[in-house]
Write a structure and sequence with these properties.
The structure holds 2 protein chains of 2 kinds. By secondary structure, chain A is an all-alpha fold. In chain A, 70% of the residues lie in helices and 0% in strands. Chain A is globular, with a radius of gyration of 21 Å. In chain B, helix 1 (4-24) runs antiparallel to helix 2 (28-53). The chains are: A mainly alpha, B mainly alpha. The interface between A and B is large, with 94 and 74 residues.
Chain lengths: 182, 100
């Protein structure tokens, strides 16, 4: 087993333990901390797949931003009150069965196509070059930045408008006081 | 080098765990967390293919998916706060006005 493969299995175990923890923990704050574990594991897998810039973004945006948002919301809503009743839906058993069948189907497809998928391996060093200009840049971050601000400039600006809309929407939804029904 | 199929199997496992989380939990907070898990699975898939094909576009898409995930979390949690003000609970079964 190569060191990369060993690291992959360790990180995969971290990610899966985190994901399972999110589902099975009764208290939302425990779920949130397991989600954090899963995010960090995915960031490690990004490094392993030579996407160093995205690993940093994953930590900053997910582990830093989204996780703080979740924890603040957990503090705002009083969730401890309902700790006595069941936290699982009636359809839980059917849902788990559905998940297993779903995974078996796609897993079978993956095993069938494994050889075809393995044949299209490329040099990971390509990820540090800029395809269009043929420029050799200093690393993954610079290559991503180059592509983002040149080829994908319009989508980038649209994303910034989207984030502005999301921010205004969140403020409006959070401020508005609605009448209680029933 | 880690084979592509390892990444695909892991990312699909993560996606299924997200789907199951959405289906089994009654708390809107954990349902939103499960949606984040699914988005993470998609990101992992895009990055794995990006490395396998030596094509940077997969990583660019991932940047946009992360941006959308951030917006989705903000709006989703704002809706959750609204629901909590309206119903006094974040239990999904309590929001059943549309039930036939």
């Amino acid at each position: 087993m190569t060191p990369a493969l060993f690291l992959f299995w360790v990180l995969a175990a971290v990610v899966v333990i985190g994901a399972v923890g999110v589902i099975v923990m009764r208290q939302p704050v425990h779920s949130a901390l397991f989600l954090l574990l899963s995010f960090v594991g995915v960031a490690g897998l990004f490094v392993l797949a030579s996407a160093e810039f995205l690993a940093a973004v994953q930590i900053l945006v997910y582990a830093g931003g989204i996780m703080v948002l979740f924890l603040f919301t957990i503090m705002l809503v009083n969730v401890r009150r309902q700790a006595t009743e069941s936290f699982l839906h009636r359809q839980a058993a059917v849902a788990v069965l559905f998940g297993l069948v779903f995974y078996a189907i796609v897993g079978g497809l993956l095993v069938g196509e494994a050889k075809k998928l393995a044949s299209v391996a490329a040099d990971p060093a390509n990820l540090a070059t800029v395809a269009a200009a043929g420029v050799r840049v200093a690393g993954n971050s610079q290559a991503v930045g180059w592509a983002l601000y040149r080829e994908y400039f319009l989508p980038f600006e649209v994303a910034s408008v989207f984030l502005l809309v999301a921010m205004i929407g969140a403020v409006v939804l959070g401020k508005r006081t609605m009448e209680k029904v029933d | 080098m880690v084979p592509l199929t390892h990444y695909l199997a892991l990312s699909f496992l993560l996606f299924v765990l997200g789907v199951v989380g959405v289906l089994v939990r009654r708390n809107l907070l954990t349902v939103l967390m499960s949606i984040e898990l699914m988005l993470n699975a998609v990101n992992l898939n895009l990055v794995a293919f990006s490395r396998q094909l030596g094509d940077l576009n997969g990583q660019i898409f991932t940047v946009f998916v992360i941006a959308v995930a951030a917006g989705e979390a903000a709006i989703g949690l704002a809706i959750l706060i609204s629901l909590y003000r309206l119903k006094g609970s974040v239990n999904l079964d309590d929001a059943a006005e549309m039930k036939g």
